[in-house]
Every structure is written in C-alpha cells, then in structure tokens.
Amino acid sequence: MAKRLEKPKRFQASLTGAAHARLRALNAEYGLSNSYLLVVLLERLDDYADAARLDAAFREFIAEYGAPEKPERD
Predict the structure, then answer these.
(1) Rounded to an integer, what distance in angstroms lies between the CA atom of residue 41 and that of residue 25?
(2) What is the pTM of this model?
(3) What single DSSP character describes residue 31?
C-alpha cells in the first residue's frame, strides 16, 4: 500500500513559458500535479543535481537577470 503524502502547501509562483512547458511535460509523463512535481523536484534535489553545477546555474542566472532586493525588516 502506498504511503500518503501530506497535501503540499499552496503558494503563488510565477513561471517562464519554458519552465511551465517543462512542468507540463513532467505532468504528462508522470501524472502528478504541478504541486507534487515541485515537491519531488525540491525535496529530492540533492539526489539528482550536482551541487557545483546547481551553484553555477544560480550564479549565471543572477549575473544575467539579477536578484530581487530583499525587503527591509523593522
């Protein structure tokens, strides 16, 4: 009998067209909702992503597009 996963927390996220297309392709292949696909991708990130390549991808993205400013806290 399969274990039950707690219902993922809802949050509003914006995706680029390319990112949304990848999510739809994963949905078509595995039959999971976008929420569950993101749970698998994020919770299992260390299982499939090389840490150095992931770091490089984030740094390249930030160099190209910048990073949003962090809100000030009182």
Answers:
(1) 14
(2) 0.75
(3) -
